[in-house]
Amino acid sequence: MIKLHGFSSSNYYNVPKLALLEKGVAFEEVLSYTGVGPKYKPEYLDKSPLGKVPALETSEGFVSESRAILEYIERAHPQHSLLPATPFGIAKVQELSQFIELYFELVARRLIPNLFAGTEPDPAVLKDVESSLNKAAAALTKLSTFEQFAYGDQFTLADIAAILNLPIVRSVGLKFLGKDPLSEVPGLDAYCARMEERPHVKKIRVDAAADRPSFMAHLKALYGI
């Protein structure tokens, strides 16, 4: 049985976790909190060279980085595919997934340390984040109408990207910008509400909430946050 190393408070960890759940692939979860630099547990570096989560343990060895893990899962377990049937459809799903990761999640992540520590962000950083998120929100309407799923008529990797990354954008926006940067995207609120009703999404949320106190204790012990 494959093993997924990481922790349920991490959206990066939850990307392959949700994929495995949706595809019905049996797997074991291995709790792994990591630090930075010399504070990494040396043995974990054999699983993920930079000590990041997640890492997937297979019979052939370890795979790190969420995108690579998703590729392995899809090829090793093609049943209940999370990609469309056509090359163009696959490309569009990957395009939307990458758009969400690069122009929403990574941008909002710049303020995550402030969110955890309860500090105010640098005004210049805050201005740049706000500008970038507003630009991405306007562009998102070119990639999806969110009428049923993020792309097409089936649940795909694009839905996983949206479900697990966009809530971070909302949290950062409401905390530091005084608004939800995604509130004006047509169809998105109704789409998100539908996705939250999916059983496996509910499990992801429950597991994340259950893990959060331990994760915050880990951060406090490691960094004093």
Feature tags:
8 helices; 56% helix; alpha+beta; Glutaredoxin; 225 residues; 4 strands; four-stranded mixed β-sheet; Glutathione S-transferase Yfyf (Class Pi), Chain A, domain 2; 2 domains
Give your account of this protein's structure.
With 225 residues, this protein is of the alpha+beta class. The chain folds into two domains: 80 residues, 3-Layer(aba) Sandwich (Glutaredoxin); 100 residues, Up-down Bundle (Glutathione S-transferase Yfyf (Class Pi), Chain A, domain 2), CATH 1.20.1050.10. Helix content is 56%, strand content 8%. It contains eight helices and four strands, in the order E-H-E-E-E-H-H-H-H-H-H-H. Strand 1, helix 1 and strand 2 form a beta-alpha-beta unit. The longest helix has 25 residues.
- Number of β-strand runs: 4
CATH topology heading of the largest domain:
Glutathione S-transferase Yfyf (Class Pi), Chain A, domain 2
Strand content: 5-15%
Distance between the termini: 36 Å
Average of per-residue pLDDT values: 94
Q: Domains counted in the coordinates: how many?
A: 2
How are the strands ordered across the major sheet?
2-1-3-4
Which CATH architecture of the largest domain would you pick? Up-down Bundle
